[in-house]
């Protein structure tokens, strides 16, 4: 929803959510989705904090800690590497390159339009492919953007690189239900998992997470954690709803970019040299190889 970034010293601005749909209540559908979703959730008695260990077999590499502290407003949390270690060490132990989050909106009575005005229906990945209408997002199914595109306006505070600190990964969400889209009593249900990916953003593994909800009283939005998610998302909340996403970043790695540039630099020179040799053998003047171009499609 409204992704914001929290640094150790400051809270970033919240993005608005442009939704202009009348609520249609579908209690039966919400109940059926909740049954699938809550089967993986372990309820919390205090409803205010989730603390979940992340392990590699018998070794604990870190923990997920999340709160719905009303003083912060919203759901705020992080994945911390084990004390005395770094996030990079935790990733290496688990056999991944880095971490991100995967979030699903399990229930939303007024789904917002996706990027380019595309239609979203519950359950849907948050954010959907390409982001929301008016808010760019990449085309990988993870909460923080794994890449940006040249010439495309984006919010740098939504990049996973921005939200990855030396020993912790940020999570924060503050969906704003005011503005006329929701009736008093409306509710949003979410499931959020920690995910490990490779250097291209390709999925490797889930590591548990948490469920939460946002409710609207007609004036303000209220947030509450509802449980721990110790199992990966079921197919209904992952495999069956990620068809519109890419499986890897379309942006080459820096090393690959340098290799391409180096190859392009050598190519004209080698062509010119071959023409010169051919011209000398034929007793003719060297000729130019003309112009050529190579276009890289970035997505």
What does this structure look like?
- This protein has two domains: 27-237, no CATH class; 252-299, no CATH class.
- Mean pLDDT is 77; it is low at 4-29 and 255-299.
- The chain has 299 residues and is an alpha+beta fold.
- The protein is globular and about 45 Å long.
- The strands form three sheets. Strands 1-12-11-10-5-6 form a six-stranded antiparallel sheet.
- The two termini are 24 Å apart.
- Helices cover 17% and strands 27% of the residues.
- The chain contains four helices and twelve strands; from the N terminus they run H-E-E-E-E-H-E-E-E-E-H-E-E-E-E-H.
- The protein has helices spanning 27-38, 87-94, 160-163, 254-281; strands at residues 41-42, 49-56, 59-67, 75-81, 98-107, 124-125, 131-132, 135-136, 168-173, 187-197, 203-216, 221-229.
- Strand 3 (59-67) and strand 4 form a beta hairpin.
Notable traits:
299 residues, alpha+beta, 2 domains, six-stranded antiparallel β-sheet
Strand order of the largest sheet: 1-12-11-10-5-6
Number of domains: 2
Strand content: 25-35%
Q: Give the structural class.
A: alpha+beta
Distance between the ends: 24 Å
The overall pLDDT, averaged over residues, is 77
Total beta-strand segments: 12
Looking at the structure, what is the overall shape?
globular
Binned, the helix content reads 10-25%
| Helix-strand sequence | HEEEEHEEEEHEEEEH
Largest sheet: 6 strands, antiparallel
By DSSP (H or I, 4+ residues per run), the number of helices equals 4
Low-confidence stretches: 4-29, 255-299
What is the CA-atom radius of gyration, in angstroms? 24 Å
């Amino acid at each position: 929803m409204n992704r914001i970034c929290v640094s150790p010293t400051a809270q970033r601005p919240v993005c608005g959510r442009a939704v202009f749909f009348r609520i249609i209540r579908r209690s039966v559908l919400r109940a059926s989705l909740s049954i699938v979703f809550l089967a993986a959730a372990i309820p919390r008695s205090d409803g205010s904090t989730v603390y979940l260990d992340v392990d590699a077999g018998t070794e604990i590499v870190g923990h997920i800690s999340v709160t719905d502290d009303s003083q912060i407003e919203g759901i705020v949390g992080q994945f911390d590497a084990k004390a005395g270690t770094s996030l990079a060490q935790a990733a290496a132990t688990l056999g991944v390159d880095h971490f991100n989050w995967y979030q699903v909106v399990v229930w939303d009575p007024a789904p917002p339009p996706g990027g380019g005005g595309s239609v979203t229906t519950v359950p849907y990945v948050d954010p959907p492919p390409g982001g929301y209408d008016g808010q760019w997002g990449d085309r990988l199914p993870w909460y923080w953007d794994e890449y940006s595109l040249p010439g495309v306006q984006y919010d740098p505070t939504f990049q996973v690189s921005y939200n990855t600190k030396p020993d912790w990964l940020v999570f924060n969400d503050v969906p704003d239900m005011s503005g006329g889209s929701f009736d008093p009593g409306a509710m949003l249900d979410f499931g959020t998992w920690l995910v490990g990916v490779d250097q291209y953003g390709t999925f490797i593994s889930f590591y548990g997470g948490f469920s939460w909800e946002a409710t609207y009283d007609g004036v303000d939005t209220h947030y509450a954690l509802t449980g721990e998610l110790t199992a990966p998302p079921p197919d209904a909340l992952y495999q069956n709803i990620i068809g519109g996403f890419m499986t890897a970043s379309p942006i080459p790695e820096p090393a690959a970019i340098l290799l391409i540039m180096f190859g392009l630099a050598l190519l004209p020179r080698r062509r010119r040299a071959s023409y010169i040799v051919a011209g000398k053998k034929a007793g003719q003047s060297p000729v130019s190889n003309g112009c050529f171009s190579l276009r890289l499609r970035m997505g």
